[in-house]
Each structure stands twice: as C-alpha cells, then as structure tokens.
C-alpha cells in the first residue's frame, strides 16, 4: 500500500471517548505528511538524477567503446607501419648488399685486369731489356772486333815500320 502526503492529510479518524489527543495526532500526521512530501520530492529528484547519470553512463560507455576501437585500430596501424618499415628496411639492406657485391666484383675484375696489365708490362720490360742487352752486347762485340781490327792494323803497321 502506497500512502502519499495528501492521503495522510485527508485521513480522518473516528472519535472515541478514550482516544488519542486529536491535536497531537493531527500534528503527528502533519509531520508525517511533510516528511512524505519531502521524501517524495527527494525521490523524484533522485530518480531524475539517476536517469541523468544512467544517460551519462551510456554516453561514457559509448565513448569508452569508441576509444577502445580507436586504440585497437591505432595499434593495428602501428603494427602495420612497423611491418612495412621493416620490409622496406630489408629491401634497402638487400639492395645495398647487392650493390656492394657488384662493386666488389667490379673491383675484383679491375684488379685482375690491372694485375694482367702489370704482368704484361713486366714481360715487355723483360723482353725490351733482353733486346737492349742483346743489342748492347752486339755493339760491344762489334766494338771489340773493330778494336781488334784496329789493333791488328796498327800492330802490323808498326812492325813493318820498324
């Protein structure tokens, strides 16, 4: 049974000879009516407040859900970006290694050509040196022969003049 302020104020009791003091009962009923009225108003205010808080809670839950979704999306994007960056870095490193190997191979080929050129130059030098020595020896032999011829000419001329 629900009793309101108005119900308490409008309530009347039968009078009896040995009953309660009417003024005291009326004062108590007035106090009860005011308390019921205040409690009813508080209940209305609290009900409104609960409704507002429930609406706010729904809003906060929606925000939380949105933030959670955003965080998850951001984490997935970050992981994707990291994976992409790692793949790109691997490609760059692979390309750099390939270029380095190419440079090393080209340098090896140039070194081999230079060593071959040096070997050919040494061979040519040895051949030229041998030719030069041969020509020089031939000239010395000719000079020796010419001297011998000169000595024999001078030697025979001197002997005859004596």
Structure description:
The chain has 162 residues and is an all-alpha fold. It is 90% helix and 0% strand. The chain is built from two helices and no strands. It has helices at 5-10, 22-161. The longest helix has 140 residues, at 22-161. It is rod-shaped and about 195 Å long. The termini are far apart. The mean pLDDT is 88.
Which structural traits does this protein have?
0% strand; 162 residues; mainly alpha
State the gist of this model.
This protein is mainly α.
Average of pLDDT = 88
Radius of gyration: 63 Å
What share of the residues lie within helices? over 70%
Number of strands: 0
Q: How many helix segments?
A: 2
**Broad shape:** rod-shaped
- pLDDT < 50 stretches: none
Distance between the termini: 183 Å
- Backbone structural class: mainly alpha
Layout of secondary structure:
Blueprint: H1 5-10, H2 22-161
């Amino acid at each position: 049974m629900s009793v309101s302020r108005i119900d308490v104020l409008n309530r009347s009791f039968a009078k009896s000879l040995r009953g309660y003091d009417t003024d005291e009962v009326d004062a108590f009923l007035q106090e009860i009516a005011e308390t019921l009225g205040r409690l009813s108003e508080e209940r209305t205010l609290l009900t409104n407040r609960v409704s507002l808080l429930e609406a706010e809670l729904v809003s906060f839950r929606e925000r939380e859900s949105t933030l959670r979704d955003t965080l998850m999306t951001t984490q997935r994007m970050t992981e994707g970006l990291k994976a992409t960056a790692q793949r790109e870095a691997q490609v760059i490193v692979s390309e750099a290694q390939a270029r380095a190997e190419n440079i090393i191979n080209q340098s090896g080929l140039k070194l081999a050509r230079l060593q071959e050129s040096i070997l050919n130059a040494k061979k040519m030098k040895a051949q030229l040196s041998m030719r030069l020595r041969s020509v020089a020896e031939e000239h010395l032999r000719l000079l020796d022969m010419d001297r011998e011829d000169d000595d024999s000419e001078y030697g025979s001329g001197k002997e005859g003049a004596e």
